[in-house]
Amino acid sequence: MNQRCYDVGAGYSRSMPNDAYAREEAALLALLRFVDEPQTVSSLRHRFDEGKKPSDILAGRAADELFSLVETDEILERTKSEISGWRSQGIEIVTPFSRNYPAQLRTVFDYPLFLFAKGTVMDDLHSAAIVGSRAVTPRGIKFASDLAGMLAQDHITVVSGLARGVDGAAHRGALDAGGRTVALIGTGIGKYYPPEHRDLHDEVARKGLLLSQFWPGSGASRQSFPMRNITMSAYSSITVIAEASENSGTRIQARAAIKHARPLVITEEIADGTTWGAKFAGGGYDVTVVASPEEARTAIRQILFRQDQMAESFGTTRNAL
Questions:
Q1: Could you report how far apart the first and last alpha carbons of the chain are, in Å?
Q2: Residue 6 has what pLDDT?
Q3: Edge to edge, what strands does the sheet with 238-243 contain?
Q4: 122 with 2: CB under 8 angstroms?
Q5: Rounded to the nearest 10 degrees, how much is the dihedral formed by the CA atoms of 63, 69, 73, 78?
Q6: What is the distance between the alpha carbons of residues 211 and 127, in angstroms, rounded to a whole number?
C-alpha cells in the first residue's frame, strides 16, 4: 500500500533521529500538562504552523525565566518516564511530531496535538466513518453492519466510535468480514465504555486500532464525545451517517465533516426527517443521499476514486481501489 506523507511545521521531518522524535513528543506533553501556565491548543497549533517545535517553545519559556533550564530538563525527564510507562502497557503516544502521526489528520485546521494509540497506526487514506444513533432501529443496525462488511471487502478502513447502536454494528461488521477498523473513543484508553463493549473494544485494539485524545484511564464527560466526533471526522476520508434523529449528537460530526471539507453520506431518512440533514443535503455541500448500503458503497468508491485522481494531480500517491 502506498501512502502519502505530510511534513508538520518547518522543523519536522519523518527522517529525524529517533531521539529527536522522543524529545519533541515529551516537550509537547510537558507544555500541555506540566508548565505553570498551560498552553492553549489553538495557540500551540499556530506556533507549530509557523515552524516552531515544542522544544523551542519550552526553551523560550525557560529563557523568559518562567522556570529554569534545570526545571525544564526535569519536566522532560518526568514526561519521558510517563511515556515509557504507557508504552509498557502497549499504549503509544502519537503527536504531530511523531514519525507515525496519521497523514490525513494534518490536512485539517484543528488537528489533534496528541493521540494515544493501541493497535496498528497507519495512514488510513481510504477510510469511512460509519456513525449514528445509540438508540438505533434494526434497520439502522443492518445498514451499518452490511455497509461495514462491504467496505471491508473493498479494503476500506471502517472508522467509528465504539458506542452502542450504529458504532458497535459498524465495528462488528468490519471485523466479521476480516477488514480493518479504527475506533475513536470518548474516554482514555483503559476505560471500557460502554461496559458491554469490553470484548469488542479489545478486539478492535488487537486487530485494528484504538485511538483516544484523552489521557489514559480518564473517564467520559459531556465534552469528550463531541470532541471525539470532530477528530473522527478529521481522521476519516468520508463520514457516513447510517441513522440519526433531530437531536442526535451525530450531527456534530456532520458539521465537522463539512468544515473539514470531507464528503458526507447520509440516508434518505436523515435528509427527509431532520432539519440539519435537509440543510446539508440541499446546501451545496459535498453530500450524497443514499437509500441503501449498496448505494452508500457505490458513492464511497466513487468519492475515493475522485480523491485518488486529485492526489495524483498534485503529485502525491494513494493506493488505488
A1: 11
A2: 33
A3: 92-94, 115-119, 209-212, 181-185, 157-160, 127-132, 238-243, 264-267, 287-290
A4: no
A5: -80
A6: 15
Distance CA 221, CA 236 (A): 23
Kindly write down the DSSP assignment for every residue of 134-146, as one continuous string.
SS--HHHHHHHHH
Q: What is the pLDDT of residue 68?
A: 55
Grid coordinates of 204: 478492535
Residues 6+ apart with CB under 8 A from 4: 103, 123, 125, 311, 316, 317, 318
Burial letters for 265-281: b for 16+ Cβ neighbours within 10 Å, e otherwise? bbbebbbeebebbebbb
pLDDT (tens digit per residue) in 128-148: 999 999 999 999 999 999 999
Cα(194)–Cα(113) distance, integer angstroms = 26
- Which is more confidently placed, 60 or 230? 230
pLDDT tens for each residue of 220-260: 888 999 999 999 999 999 999 999 999 998 999 999 999 99
Distances (CA, A) of 16 to 13, 24, 152: 6, 11, 34
Q: Which of 233, 254, 246, 307 has the alpha carbon at shortest distance from 272?
A: 246
Q: What radius of gyration do the chain's Cα atoms show? A: 20
Q: What is the pTM of this model?
A: 0.89
